[in-house]
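Example: Acyl carrier protein.
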Amino acid sequence: MSEIHGASSSARAASTMALSPENALFNKYEVGKLLGCGAFAKVYHARDVATGRSVAIKVINKSRLNNSATLINNIKREISIMSLLRHPNIVKLLEVLATKRKIFFVLEFVKGGELFAKVAKGRFAEDLARKYFQQLISAVSYCHSRGVYHRDLKPENLLLDENCDLKVSDFGLSALSDHVRSDGLLHTLCGTPAYVAPEILAKRGYDGAKVDVWSCGVVLFVLTAGYLPFNDPNLMNMYKKIYKGEFRCPKWISPDLKRFFSRLLDTNPEIRISIDEIKLDPWFKNGYSEVKSESITNLTNPEERKTQDLNAFGIISFSRGLDLSGLFDAKFAAAEDVDRLTAEERPETVLEKVEEVVKAESGGLQLRKTKECGVELEGQNGDFVVSLEVYRLTDRLVVVEVKRKAGDATAFAGLWSEKIRPVILRRPEVTPNAHFQNDLGLDSFDTVEIVMALEKDFCFEIPDNEADKINSINLAVDFIACHPQAK
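Written out as structure tokens, the predicted fold is:
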């Protein structure tokens, strides 16, 4: 479904509940009104409790998937792909949460709603249509450079923010370059009928980049003409028009744009205009400037570093049984792709040490600040993406969690074990009062600190005897993992 982040007339009529701490999801997000719904998911407006920022939460009920391998793989792929993408014209996936029954996509909130709702009121002037098309091509070009092909570009999947800038959403039908078969082509039949490229209808395989260009051309036609270039009440007749490339431009379309359409909607993918050629076209170039890559962010400003305190529920959430990463990356292995360590260090100092590693790589790594006290590291050419977050456990202890979000597992392992981890651990680690192993997936923690957190947050009485204490902590972990409402 399209993530309908902005309010629509149907959404305003939908049931609502007030934003309040009582409605907080995982103690992190206050869930508000329903924004939209589809066959398998609903989208709600919500607010980040820590920052007050608005987000959209897409809720997928697992029972509605009916154990369908296709639907489950679509969800895995969507999360894996959206984890790779950070571009001003693409809706950001902030994080993924889950319970036994539901999966929650926490997404950037896009206030303005669908582009479709705006164009439905009337066609756009060429200058406005050009602005949106330039932003669309910028986003699609970025996706292709990361080996991602959207395959369902249409106005319903293009959102507008409060500044009327375009954001591409809904990557549920997207493909990665490693989905290409030995013939170098994709073969899955997908897309929306009116926007699908003729080579998909031919069922002989297709180039993901070329079909995205075709869909972009149809979108531009809709924006400037106010109607679809290929349309017929009979679906088979519409497919025939698409296959033959039968369309006519209205009289108000400029000559330059007509010529541009002839290249965008060329039925022969071999000679259809490419993204690079689009950027050189005279009609497109008018007022266009490339979106610059996000530069390394200075993370040393303490006012911008809001450290996330780790309470008992946060500790429990480190349980491998609650880790969704394996759901959306087939190559993911919790033991190799997630690591955590405790350090007697200030959170700011931890991030400064990570910056040292990035600078030493001389451009081989890109670093971006993410929510609260965390960063995201991206390898050269996007070959892997790593998230690193710092949580305050006590006044003197922090937990550093690093996770491979996407890409090359070997490159991730080398970066973490050989470069970042040793730098963070220049100072000796805290010697814990007691060591224990359980399904938290942590090497060790100061048992006293966990005991205090469990007693405070969950009202568990922990015995003084050390062996009984560890057993009680394990029982508490099991209870809370099975009864999340206990929080």
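Residues 126-145 form the longest helix (20 residues).
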